[in-house]
């Protein structure tokens, strides 16, 4: 499948990408190569192959789902230019 310059212009417009008129032929060729690669992948026989989320089979480490403040208040406020009563102190902006 080959992408025309008009189709490349439309794809760029839909993706909100500004593409100079002189770059449209290169963009069309690159998109055509991507589609050719996708067609090549479609030729692979995957019958009986189980879908997977990663290349190495491993289980995710689970933790208990509990709400906490992380107990990092002092570390977070250590670099604050001004902290009072356990909070960031900021200048008043509304009068």
UniProtKB/TrEMBL annotation:
Keywords: ATP-binding, Ligase, Nucleotide-binding, Protein biosynthesis, Transferase. Its EC number is 6.3.5.-. It catalyses: L-glutamyl-tRNA(Gln) + L-glutamine + ATP + H2O = L-glutaminyl-tRNA(Gln) + L-glutamate + ADP + phosphate + H(+); L-aspartyl-tRNA(Asn) + L-glutamine + ATP + H2O = L-asparaginyl-tRNA(Asn) + L-glutamate + ADP + phosphate + 2 H(+). SUPFAM superfamilies: Glu-tRNAGln amidotransferase C subunit (SSF141000). One of its GO terms (biological process) is regulation of translational fidelity. It is an enzyme of class 6 (ligase). One of its GO terms (molecular function) is glutaminyl-tRNA synthase (glutamine-hydrolyzing) activity. Pfam families: GatC. Heterotrimer of A, B and C subunits. Allows the formation of correctly charged Asn-tRNA(Asn) or Gln-tRNA(Gln) through the transamidation of misacylated Asp-tRNA(Asn) or Glu-tRNA(Gln) in organisms which lack either or both of asparaginyl-tRNA or glutaminyl-tRNA synthetases. The reaction takes place in the presence of glutamine and ATP through an activated phospho-Asp-tRNA(Asn) or phospho-Glu-tRNA(Gln). Belongs to the GatC family. This is Aspartyl/glutamyl-tRNA(Asn/Gln) amidotransferase subunit C. The gene is gatC.
